[in-house]
Amino acid sequence: MTSRTPIRRVLGVAAATAAAALIFTGCAQQPAATATASQAEATAPLPAPFDGEPVKVALVQQSGAGDFFTAWTAGAKAQAAATNIELTVTDARNDNAKQASDLEQAIASQPDAIIVDHGQTDTLEPRIRDAVAAGIPVIVYDLALENTDGVIVTSQSDASMAEGVLDQLIADVGDGAKVGLVSAEGFAPLDRRKAVWDTYVSEHNLDQLFFTGEVTESTATDNIPLVDAALKQHPDVQAIFAPYDEITKGVVQAVIQNNLQDSVKVYGIDISNADIEVITADGSPWVATSATDPAAVGAAVVRALALSLAGESDETEVQFPAVTITQQFLLDEGVTNVAALREVEPGLQLGDFLTADWLPAVSQ
Prior knowledge:
The longest helix is centred in the first third of the chain and has 18 residues, at 7-24. The protein starts with 6 loop residues before the first helix and ends with a strand. β5 (113-117), α4 (121-133) and β6 form a beta-alpha-beta unit. 43% of the residues lie in helices and 19% in strands. It is α/β, with parallel strands linked by helices. It has helices at 7-24, 67-81, 96-108, 121-133, 158-173, 188-203, 219-233, 245-257, 273-279, 294-309, 327-333, 338-344; strands spanning 29-30, 38-39, 55-61, 85-91, 113-117, 138-141, 151-156, 178-182, 207-212, 239-242, 265-269, 286-291, 317-320, 323-326, 362-363. The strands form 3 sheets. A 7-stranded mixed β-sheet has the order 1-4-3-5-6-7-13, with helices on both faces.
């Protein structure tokens, strides 16, 4: 069995990783990256419009702390570079007004297409309608829209992600257990995951003791005091669902601070190198997560757009499948990073998802 690093030191490493990710995504505009990811050989030439001048695509992003977003963007950039797409990236970093302004500027620049990654419905939907009215193809990722006409909507399968990890929670602690939820409202993926949680609470007669949490520029750190207060009030909680990995890290730290790691199990969503280090650390209460590979998903969003622009797909809704990963599985397989996880869980790579003979998937 792999030796396990003490959890307190790992959380410090995770925080440093998150800070590095913020620095990496800090520029308002970033040029397209060179495709350093590996790629299978294309067996056909690029079709129009990719066979001439680079196709100009604006990626209007709303990222948060943590390497999930860094990996997602790296995957999107690598696939774009391999597909003759000139990708211009703006990142609002939890500033809704800035993302709205970024989208307005993207529309004004008249790109060949726009990708919108995360964000708030009320600030973005009117501007997305403006883009569609201007004849600009739009694809969104993890953004809930009331009107999806003319838009390709993509997301992780949030329902299956939540169901997978909550099935594990029920298997571990059983019906009627005392549980807590740490999440935030107003974010499409978190709202979809909470809807599944509410169903499980009802169907399995779970005793929900608390619901707290927030998404901020420093999500992991800012959730620690919130969860600490909930644990002090409800030290008898048996399991906590924290359906976003940055929130999960804050929950893990609060559980450790309260010396409850032997009695409280934590269930998250998402996976990254930093997450794996926290999950497999000695004494970690984070026992299961459900995830897609963010780099593979970022690349697949670009492929969905490319197939549409080439006239080879008329899909308007795409969901990316997820897998549930337990702490015990990672330890048994000796997994220490996402690259190693891809080897033992090849389904994460989405290698046969939204591909064509001219459009093989990049792999990180």
